[in-house]
Amino acid sequence: MPAKRAEKVRPAQNVSQPDAAIRFEVIHNGRRVARAGMARYGILDAALTWCRRHPSRVTDHEQPELQLHVGGVDSSEPAWNRHVSWAVPAIERGDRLELRISGSRSIDAPSAETRYRVVERITPPPGGDPARADVSGAVLWRVPDGIYLDAKDRNRGGPMLLSRAEARRLADALVKAAGAPPLRTKTGETRRPGPAARRKTGRKRR
Questions:
Q1: Number of H-type helices and E-type strands within the chain
Q2: What is the DSSP letter of 204?
């Protein structure tokens, strides 16, 4: 799957939105500190989090125990997702927070913004598809340009740990997929799954 392209941009100044959607007005100790919202489409969230880690898990980059986050994703531009957030004060014991839902046409400029180009989400074919193989939780499938491999651990959300036997089965499945007959594109063009399919003894054919 191609990596997302991120582009940091300077936040815009306060602007008036033509189609007022839901706004979050965050009030801290009686003072409004942010009016957050999106242009037309997106996701908006406000979250107060408390986290205290066990001393054995504390890192050098530990965050404050109490954190207030106001941000979201503006998807009003078809080709871009804008990840934005608004500056809010540090939260302490005894503070009073209020979240007011409004339909104001104006919003505060976000304090941080990063744009990501929208890319097509790649998903494997359904089970039973001849182009798909499942090996110990890993999924691989052939496409006209090559082979996709999805081997993320579903339970822990990180890299997958394979035993040696599982790794051998996965390697066998990859070799089998690479040597399978070529798939056809939508235009009918025939392509090999990749360079590995053109090798037999480690040397390219001539």
A1: 1, 15
A2: B
Give Cβ neighbours of residue 62 (< 8 Å, ≥ 6 apart). Answer: 53
List the one residue out of 106, 68, 66, 107 whose CA is nearest residue 87. 68
Which value, in Å, is the radius of gyration of the alpha carbons in the chain? Answer: 25
Contact by Cβ (8 Å): 6, 116: yes
Instruction: Quote the pTM value.
Output: 0.55
Count of residues making up the chain: 206
Q: Kindly report, residue by residue over 117-152, the tens digit of the pLDDT.
A: 888 778 888 888 888 888 888 888 888 888 888 887
Considering only CA atoms, which of 37, 50, 42 is closest in space to residue 74? 42
Q: How far is it, in rounded angstroms, from Cα 155 to Cα 53?
A: 21
Count of Cβ atoms closer than 10 Å to residue 114 Cβ: 13
What are the residues facing 7 on neighbouring strands? Answer: 115
Collect all residues with Cβ–Cβ distance below 8 Å to 115 and sequence separation of at least 6.
6, 7, 8, 9, 80, 81, 82, 83
Domain boundaries, the chain: 6-117, 132-195
Tokens 């934005």 belong to 84
